[in-house]
């Protein structure tokens, strides 16, 4: 028995979903006043385990104790009543309402009249206590993703939670915002609250957590470890089940001719607001240019204007010195542009079509797949078979529908289509997002192989580590502009640029 | 052609539009588009008139009008909330149903004799205000005053009370509202029915107060559709709804009255000599409605106008887990 009583104790908790054993006899304990990390790959069962603690699901077997008392929650409300709250990756906020209104949503107080100014004051005070700089009167749509996360934290604090579960909280944050979050978590811990921090990022866990529990395929792989007594390689081994090589072999090579030239391009987003502002960029053959930036700063629009999916309002885009500005996606494909889009399920693949149909979707116009106006289906199937082997797509047959594939296999299917076209220019948007460590490594190797084959590659990623590992140069996007370029691996500098910190400096440089 | 009298009648006529528009605002703020306003109004007009003839009690007539229109709205709720059907299709069907039912049950009602109308009165003190007093507070139907009260009350309810906060949440982001422990389905049903009842009240106001009688479809003559357009024009705000309703009400009266005199502003009145000009003017509110509805169907514009983000989308509770 430890000296401090455990805030939460989960014993032999098992949860089954149709076809999946999500949690198998898991034990988990949380002490009062600690940050406890829950580490594991995607699909390891971290979120499921915590969703049971937060009242979203009921365990099939096992017991949950809160402060020593056995509990059984029917809803998140029950859990919050016992002081346990969870912040999910997708926020549950109403964009058109103010911060205070969002926090008051669903509570029994105020009874009828809102008296917002009274509550605004309370929210300010509470926010200040935990270092959350938040304007209670602001509408949520005006806030950045990091600020919205702080609203979610404030919502939980206002409900008086003692245990806060955060599901991958740093995925949406810039480095400086992560520091702010950690400060807030520390302030909460100092008041005796406990935090469960779900993550698959090892550095972060070593930095934030007091203890860490590792899950793999629904099982605990080791009793809780003190972060002080463990190391990143050990955690990686526990998480993946084998040693992971963190160094990718990137050949030194001189970039060749300029393949992509973007000249002062402006474009609007779906809402008709400017998304790209006079953006200029070049990518040369055999070079990977990484684009760093907080999601939603124009990366998607940039990829779309290059691949012919979005029109520019001004400016010029050249591929191998040929104009592709405001032409079609087909024109881009004919000029050797390949696109691995951010959204695998909607843009990247046709979910109800087979693997065969999905991999020939680009090359079907040419022989040998095309036979006049008809398709040579035998040839298509053969091509798909070859690609399935080559890209290790795990599926029963090539006739399997794309929607039945796991994230990693779907991404390999898309890569098979895009890379087999032998692209001169590859636009890879978040190619490893949501994949597990093994799959990430495979995708990264494929990208490096394309680089060696002489393709020009524009890569976006939310993982700075990945950009550092793969890119020859890194440019930083902020509010539709390239605000800087780095060749060294200076996280702090990039972080500042990602949050607009370098704006003033750039203005001086330009003048 | 006394402008005061025209405006006075315009406010009365606008009250019908106002009640229906407020009803539609409640429904749409909860995320349910109900294009059945015209059908519910006709149902209200017919049943209010019918009950009042039978019982001699106009209040009872209004009550029945609200109940029956509320029942029609409940049907729309079951189809769109429970069965998650397309709200546009269901709403159009509701207009057909409401119109059909009221024509069948209203058969012969137009020959019915005189009825006791809802009372009219003049508000002391307020009616003494120059210009506004005679227009707004002199010899108006009780329903007109009800309209005056409903506008600020509706605004306050939606924006300054806890149930109003929940109403907005359900129409903006039902998933988030559900996660915060708000019963999305229950609230949506409640506000669809409330919206329907207000549309029924609007119908009853026509047949018992503003232009008494039962004239089949001509009783509402498409005012339900104008109300649907006004909701978009009003940007889902009760104050703007009041402005739009009274403006259109006044326009209706002006178009009627302007065709009377032979001389207008010292010149021969073109509306008197050329009836087509009058027909053209009468068409304008409907043309406006069509334009607003077409523009309002564009998602981007609707977003800019501040439409409830989940308007028209059925809420399906997400399957938890993966």
Short account of what is shown:
Chain A is an alpha/beta fold.
Kindly list the characteristics that best describe this protein.
A: 511 residues, Rossmann fold, 3 domains, six-stranded mixed β-sheet, 18 helices, 33% helix, disordered C terminus, B: 322 residues, mainly alpha, 14 helices, globular
Care to describe what's here?
Chain A is of the alpha/beta class and 511 residues long. In chain A, a hairpin with a 5-residue loop joins strand 11 (258-268) and strand 12. Chain A has 3 domains: 6-240, 3-Layer(aba) Sandwich (Rossmann fold), CATH 3.40.50.300; 258-336 and 423-510, P-loop containing nucleotide triphosphate hydrolases (Rossmann fold, 3-Layer(aba) Sandwich); 355-418, no CATH class. The termini of chain A are far apart. Chain A is 33% helix and 26% strand. The longest helix of chain A is centred in the middle third of the chain and has 16 residues, at 175-190. In chain A, helix 14 (407-419) runs parallel beside helix 15. Chain A is globular. Chain A has 18 helices and 22 strands. By secondary structure, chain B is mainly α. Chain B has one domain (3-305): ABC transporter involved in vitamin B12 uptake, BtuC (Orthogonal Bundle), CATH 1.10.3470. Helices cover 69% and strands 2% of the residues of chain B. Chain B has helices at residues 3-29, 37-55, 58-82, 87-105, 132-136, 142-160, 162-172, 174-179, 184-210, 223-233, 238-257, 270-273, 275-296, 299-305; strands at 120-121, 140-141, 263-264, 267-268. In chain B, the strands form 2 sheets. Chain B has a two-stranded antiparallel sheet. Chain B has a two-stranded antiparallel ribbon with strand order 3-4. In chain B, helix 1 packs parallel to helix 6, helix 6 runs antiparallel to helix 11 (238-257) and helix 10 crosses helix 13. The longest helix of chain B is centred in the N-terminal third of the chain and has 27 residues, at 3-29. Chain B is globular and about 65 Å long. Chain A binds chain B through residues 17, 22, 43, 48, 51, 56-57, 75-77, 91-97, 101, 104-106, 110-114, 116, 270-272, and chain B through 160-166, 168-169, 172-173, 175-177, 179-182, 300, 303, 306, 309, 320-322.
């Amino acid at each position: 028995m430890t000296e401090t009583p455990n805030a939460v104790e989960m014993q032999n908790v098992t949860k089954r979903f149709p076809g999946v054993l999500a949690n198998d006899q898991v034990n988990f304990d949380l002490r009062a006043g600690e940050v406890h990390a829950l580490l594991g790959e995607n699909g390891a069962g971290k979120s499921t385990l915590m969703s049971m603690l937060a009242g979203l699901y009921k365990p099939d077997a096992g017991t949950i104790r809160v402060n020593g008392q056995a509990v059984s929650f029917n809803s998140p409300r029950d859990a919050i009543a016992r002081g346990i709250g969870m912040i999910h990756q997708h926020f549950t906020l109403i964009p058109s309402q103010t911060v205070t209104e969002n926090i008051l949503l669903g509570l029994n107080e105020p009874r009828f009249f809102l008296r917002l100014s009274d509550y605004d004051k309370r929210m300010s005070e509470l926010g200040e206590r935990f270092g959350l700089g938040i304007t209670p009167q602001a509408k949520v749509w005006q806030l950045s993703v990091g600020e919205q996360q702080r609203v979610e934290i404030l919502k939980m604090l206002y409900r008086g939670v003692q245990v806060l579960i955060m599901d991958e909280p740093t995925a949406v944050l810039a480095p400086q915002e992560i520091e702010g979050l950690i400060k807030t978590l520390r302030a909460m811990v100092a008041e005796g609250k406990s935090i469960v921090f779900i993550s698959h990022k090892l550095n972060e866990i070593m930095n934030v957590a007091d203890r860490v529990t590792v899950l793999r395929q629904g099982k605990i792989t080791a009793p809780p470890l003190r972060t002080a007594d463990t190391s990143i390689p050990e955690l990686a081994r526990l998480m993946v089940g084998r040693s992971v090589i963190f160094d990718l072999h990137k050949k030194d090579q001189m970039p060749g001719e300029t393949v992509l030239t973007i000249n002062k391009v402006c474009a609007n987003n779906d809402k008709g607001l400017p998304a790209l502002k006079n953006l200029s960029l070049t990518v040369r053959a055999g070079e990977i240019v990484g684009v760093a930036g907080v999601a939603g700063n124009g990366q998607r629009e940039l990829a779309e204007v290059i691949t012919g999916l979005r029109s520019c309002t001004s400016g010029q885009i050249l591929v191998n010195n040929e104009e592709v500005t405001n032409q079609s996606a087909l024109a881009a494909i004919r000029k050797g542009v390949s696109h691995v889009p951010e959204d695998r399920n909607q843009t990247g693949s046709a979910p109800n079509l087979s693997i065969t149909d999905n991999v020939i979707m680009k090359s079907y116009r040419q022989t040998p797949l095309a036979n006049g106006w008809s398709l040579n289906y035998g040839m298509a199937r053969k091509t798909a078979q070859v690609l399935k082997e080559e890209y290790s797509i795990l599926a029963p047959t090539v006739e399997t529908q794309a929607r039945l594939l796991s994230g990693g296999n779907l991404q390999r299917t898309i890569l098979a289509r895009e890379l087999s076209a032998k692209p001169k220019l590859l636009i890879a948007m978040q190619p490893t997002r949501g994949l597990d460590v093994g799959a990430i490594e495979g995708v990264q190797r494929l990208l490096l192989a394309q680089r060696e084959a002489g393709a020009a590659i524009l890569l976006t990623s939310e993982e700075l580590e990945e950009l550092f590992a793969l890119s020859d140069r890194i440019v930083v996007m902020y509010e539709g502009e390239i605000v800087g370029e780095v060749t060294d691996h200076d996280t702090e500098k990039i972080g500042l640029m990602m949050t607009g910190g370098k704006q003033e400096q750039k203005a001086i440089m330009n003048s | 052609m006394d402008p005061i009298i025209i405006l006075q009648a315009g406010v009365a006529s606008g009250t019908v539009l106002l009640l229906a528009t407020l009803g539609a605002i409640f429904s749409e703020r909860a995320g349910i588009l109900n294009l059945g306003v015209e059908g519910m109004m006709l149902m209200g007009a017919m049943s209010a008139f019918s009950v009042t003839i039978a019982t001699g009690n106009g209040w009872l007539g209004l009550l029945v009008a609200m109940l029956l229109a509320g029942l029609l709205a409940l049907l729309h709720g079951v189809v769109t909330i429970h069965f998650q059907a397309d709200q546009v299709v269901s709403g159009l069907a509701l207009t057909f149903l409401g119109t059909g039912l009221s024509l069948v049950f209203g058969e012969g009602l137009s020959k019915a004799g005189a009825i006791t109308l809802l009372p009219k009165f003049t508000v002391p003190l307020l009616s003494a205000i120059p210009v506004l007093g005679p227009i707004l507070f002199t010899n108006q139907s009780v329903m007109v005053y009800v309209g005056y009260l409903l506008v600020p009350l509706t605004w306050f309810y939606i924006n300054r009370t806890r149930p109003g906060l929940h109403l907005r949440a359900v129409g903006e982001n039902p998933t988030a509202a559900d996660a915060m422990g708000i019963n999305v389905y229950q609230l949506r049903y409640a506000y669809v029915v409330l919206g329907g009842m207000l549309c029924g009240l609007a119908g009853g106001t026509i047949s018992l107060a503003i232009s008494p009688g039962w004239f089949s479809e001509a009783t509402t003559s498409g005012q339900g559709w104008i109300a649907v357009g006004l909701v978009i024009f009003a940007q889902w705000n009760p104050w703007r709804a009041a402005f739009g309703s009274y403006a259109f009400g006044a326009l209706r009266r002006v178009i009627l009255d302007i065709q009377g005199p032979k001389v207008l502003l010292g010149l021969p009145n073109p509306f008197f000599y050329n009836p087509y000009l009058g027909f053209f003017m009468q068409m304008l509110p409907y043309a406006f409605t069509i334009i607003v509805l077409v523009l309002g169907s564009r998602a981007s514009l609707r977003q800019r106008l501040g439409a409830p983000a989940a308007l028209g989308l059925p809420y399906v509770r997400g399957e938890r887990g993966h």
